[in-house]
Amino acid sequence: MSRVDKEKSVNVQVLLRCRPFSDDELRSNAPQVVTCNDYQREVAVTQTIAGKQIDRVFTFDKVFGPTARQRDLYDQAIIPIVNEVLEGFNCTIFAYGQTGTGKTYTMEGECRRAKSGPEGQLPSDAGVIPRAVKQIFDTLERQNTEYSVKVTFLELYNEEITDLLAPEEISKVALEERQKKPLPLMEDGKGGVLVRGLEEEIVTNCSEIFSLLERGSAKRRTAETLLNKQSSRSHSLFSITIHIKEATPEGEELIKCGKLNLVDLAGSENICRSGARE
Ligand SMILES: Nc1ncnc2c1ncn2[C@@H]1O[C@H](COP(=O)(O)OP(=O)(O)OP(=O)(O)O)[C@@H](O)[C@H]1O
């Protein structure tokens, strides 16, 4: 079996991305403790314990070092997953890591300003979500079949689910009430779970999704931490459900349904150590 075939048959893949040093880290001459070897898919971590240097090497399904661009990660790791969603499978991509390691950068990037340019180009900083949205609509439009695309956007914070796409209410009090109201998580009777009352928005093009993302992201609750001022301590889940109408060679009508879950987890570090406050 070739490496590509092997990768296809594996249901869970773990990729590692290591961001470049920030300006602050460069200024303070922070030591480099992680070395990536993208080609060998290995990461070496250097630790000094009791004056002794200990190197440990970890292997991942893919490794993206500090010079890897948003586009490199997307082309090599995400395109095949989105293709599977378009084939009618359910797939999930989530970013896990300590605060400030680049989860939101990887998932959203310059998403909020991602409205495509004159030739439909995304900015080079655009992350996984805008790129996936673009790939989905580009493919659907090329296929020239009937389709529908629905999105949901929720936040999980302190064990409570909030709908980030809940419609704006006229009264400010009612709006605040609604935004704060947690939604119940229930079993759907088919072995899955559903969030009761979650707003599902039908979208017909990329820019509609981008404005929903912008609206939802603005609602995300954030708490400043000492590790990263922009830090978000909530998990967010952006889901895209696609229904595609197809005809079999026998002329029978088929509906293919695929779902892509895009998750940006809260920082995985110890909350006490990060200095975050309610
Ligand atoms: N690969 C990268 N290239 C350039 N800048 C990056 C990269 N990854 C992250 N950054 C920058 O590092 C900073 C922290 O990244 P980000 O906010 O995405 O972290 P995070 O893991 O989402 O943190 P939190 O858990 O607090 O939300 C941001 O200023 C971001 O622009």
Automatic annotation (TrEMBL):
One of its GO terms (cellular component) is mitotic spindle. GO terms for biological process: microtubule-based movement; mitotic spindle assembly; spindle elongation. InterPro entries: KIF11-like, Kinesin_motor_CS, Kinesin_motor_dom, Kinesin_motor_dom_sf, P-loop_NTPase. ATP binds at G97, Q98, T99, G100, T101, G102, K103, T104. The keyword Cytoplasm applies. The keyword ATP-binding applies. Responsible for microtubule translocation. May be important for the organization of phragmoplast-specific arrays of microtubules. Plays an essential role in stabilizing the mitotic spindle. Required during mitotic cytokinesis. PANTHER family: KINESIN FAMILY MEMBER 11 (PTHR47970:SF12), KINESIN-LIKE PROTEIN KIF11 (PTHR47970). This is Kinesin-like protein. It comes from Aegilops tauschii subsp. strangulata (Goatgrass).
